[in-house]
Amino acid sequence: MTDQSTNRRPYGLKPALVLIGGVWILADAGYRFVLPALGLRAAYTAEPVAIALYYAAWVAIALAVFWPLYRPWPTHENPVVTHIVLVGLLGGILLFAVYGLPALPRIVWTEPWEAPELMRVTAWYFVPKAAEILFQQLLIAALVLAFAGEGYALRAISFICAALFGGMHVMLALGGMPVGYVVRFMLAAAAFGLIFPVLLLRTTNGLAWSYSLHWLYYLVTIVMAHTLSPYTQY
pLDDT (tens digit, 9 = 90+) per residue, 30-56? Predict the structure, then answer.
């Protein structure tokens, strides 16, 4: 499958990178500082509807700002397949949230600091998370397409995405997360950063597959937290 639009340049590379970084930082800063200033707790399980709407607004902003990069997409996209993948994915997540999560062993947190949110999720957690992951995927896609439009090789794009996506997760430390937790997320994000460009540039319906893979990490992490952590209570 060939890249049919590597020569398009709706933005220069530097302006595109500034826009992507600015949108990502503003969204994260708004979540961590603006929402609490409005009296909303920055926790998905505490404010699921508000946070879902917050990230839905950022999804709309990302689509508006980066639409020249998204269209046309380098690979053929089949809307029917995309809808089947996304409906199947979200349907599976709904079933897991309603039936799978309550069936997992309980977590009994014994540390003096607050437990990471992935260790205290409820079914409501998955509502804002769906919007947040889509927002992140749209920014990753814009980044990948910006570099591809400048003729960068796929391997180079993958390494750049790994470094940037992994590095962005250092902001988890702002939420008071333990160092080991932050490092694990950074390494996992870097690993996925290597894979996302391949899916986005070399597979049909790459955004749907990339979104699904992104979700898989969180689902596996939640299951592991409930079954393998030292805080599990059978």
Answer: 998 999 999 999 899 999 999 999 999
